[in-house]
Predict the structure of Teichoic acid transport system ATP-binding protein.
Amino acid sequence: MERRSETTDYRAPAVVVEDVHMGYTVRTSKPKGRSLPARVLNRLNLGTMEKVEALRGVSLMARQGEFIGVIGANGSGKSTLLRLIAGVERPDHGIILAQRQPTLLGVNAALQPALSGAANVRLGCLAMGMTPEQAESVKNEVVRLSALGDAINRPMGGYSSGMSSRLRFAIAVAARPKILLIDEALSTGDATFAARSEEAMNAMLSEAGTVFLVNHAAKVIQEMCDRAIWMHDGKVIMDGDAEEVAEKYRWWSWNVAQGELVTAQKLLEDAVEKGEMQEVRVVDDLALKDTDPRHARRGRTEVEEYRRPQTTWPGLDVPVERTFETDMLPVVTDVRLEQVPQPRRARDVLRN
Ligand SMILES: Nc1ncnc2c1ncn2[C@@H]1O[C@H](COP(=O)(O)OP(=O)(O)OP(=O)(O)O)[C@@H](O)[C@H]1O
């Protein structure tokens, strides 16, 4: 396999994730042993608390203009990773830096089911931070991209989930975010929308935007992305060319579905052995030294990138592939969510 270090990529970083861990404490009804207190809890059916490790040391660097697919089994940590990059939640441990505030599709533009698709376009654009004039100027383009036809004038509450996803996607892309995170299936069944969404995505990428796309279908990742990350059990187990990573994932998941668990396990081990892992280290970051990231100054950030063969990680010392000096800010938790208008206010905004 060709090592990516042989084709060094000099595009500047857009997102840096360094050794991120995230756990959730959840109530479980699993019986907790045979001791007296455990037996009492079991009998009362009260359950106990359990820690779920959603992310266990994830590191990666996304560059400007990269389209990265994120694949993996249910519960492998894909959505958690995107939520943390978006700043919706804060990691337990680790650093997340971004060149701009990332936009998580579906979260940033809270749409109203009682309003028509067209009215939601305006509302969504305003919620994404556009001025009323900007919202007006992109309206027709959003409607065209959503490919909803006459349905655009009907209340969104009556849309199928695929139709709502299209509208949210069209709004998010119209806002020309520098970093777009998509955590849902983009309908590929409809040729019109598939073609238009690809066209819109390409336009965004050509402006050096960065896109992360979570999708269970290896085919979608292969068709749309140039790089893919395979997550398993809270870790990145393979990171590289989308075609190659998605093919390995497809073969693994087919075997799991067929109940061929021994073969699936071998494929997983093979992916880990042959794959590479990107490691990054934030060497120096002026903004991080500020106590409140919301008011942090943009400063020089020095990031080192490593590519290590998985098998030798974490033992072997691999030379630093590249040191970037760039200006990035820690991702700010909930910055966009605070701007999402409430229903009453949403109508006021539309009347203006
Ligand atoms: N808010 C939460 N509270 C408790 N546990 C959570 C929460 N969010 C995620 N988890 C747990 O973290 C793990 C990773 O979940 P996550 O949703 O990130 O996986 P995923 O790869 O996106 O899964 P899927 O493909 O099913 O969407 C799972 O075990 C999940 O149950």
Remarks:
- The chain has eleven helices and 13 strands.
- The longest strand covers residues 13-28.
- Residues 1-7, 312-316, 334-352 have pLDDT under 50 and may be disordered.
- The CA atoms of residues 118 and 152 lie 5 Å apart.
